[in-house]
Amino acid sequence: MQEKLEKIREQATKALESETLLKELEDLRVQYLGKKGELTAVLRGMGSVEPEERPAIGKLANEVRENIEGLIDKKKKELEKLAQEQQLDEEVIDVTMPGKKIRIGKMHPIQKTQEEVENIFLGMGYEVVDGREVETGYYNFDALNLGPDHPARDEQDTFYFTRDMMLRTCTSPVQVHTMESQKPPIRMVAPGKVYRSDEVDATHSPVFHQIEGLVIDKDITFGDLKGALAEFAKSLFGDKAKVKFRPHYFPFTEPSAEVDVSCVMCDGKGCNICGGTGWIEILGCGMVHPKVLEMAGIDPEVYSGFAFGMGLERITMLKYSIHDLRLFYENDVRFISQF
Ligand code: DAH
Description:
By secondary structure, the protein is α+β, with helices and mostly antiparallel strands. The chain has a 7-stranded mixed sheet with strand order 1-5-6-10-9-8-7, sandwiched between helices. A 3-stranded antiparallel sheet has the order 2-4-3. The protein is rod-shaped, with a radius of gyration of 44 Å. It is built from 12 helices and 10 strands. The longest helix has 37 residues, at 54-90. Bound molecules: 3,4-dihydroxyphenylalanine (DAH).
């Protein structure tokens, strides 16, 4: 009996000393200490041991059990530590390594100008209104007093879906939608894309951006228009910017004007940007035509107003001395990231 116990101890010790995997440890525990294990089998045979020898054998059996249990625990801790070290080795993180640089995008220069213009007018109490890019003939032409023979209606100039549905050619139709849906006083700007059947070159694109402005109230005069646009030019181009109103014709305003701003490059002295004149045209404007007011349901005897519209590409090109409009649409990050 004693020999058997010693043998079990010896075997178990050997087995545990040799290299073992963590999951095999449990098998060893079962093999030696489990209910059907070797040590248990020996203890079951205690009946055949002489009574006077029993205490000694019992003591030895306990010793052997504790011994094996101790060895298993020790081995388990060793293996766990080893596994952890291995894991740490594999998952090494070098906190001194430089991080991956995240490239942050920039706002597109047209968007930037748009927001700048919006903010200037928001500061003067205007609201920003959304328009629609697909319009009917009524909103794009008729309601703006562009008669059936107006050249802008030509198939060569406008993108038509059907005879009466088209991509808007300017942002002016938003004036009409606003007048139809809001009661005066109205003070709004409406930015967005507009479409014309133009070939792409350094100054033309079939898609470009405009921002429209509309003010309707009692007693609005041309003086209000001049004041608003002079203030706008100063805010956008700097305090030295002056504006000049040249008489012009638009069907939806009367009187109408084109506005020049003193050249931002030469301060009005004359350079190759302004063609030596000292002035650069930036927008069209005028007093809203009584017919346009009337068609939109506003009484021209009670109310008057002014409107203006400008191209955002043109203003952005001026602001940053960009000479080719195509740069805006090519989305070359070397260009875009400069703004
Ligand atoms: N819609 C004109 C265009 O696209 C620009 C314009 C001129 C808008 C005069 C206006 C205005 O509101 O009063 O050329």
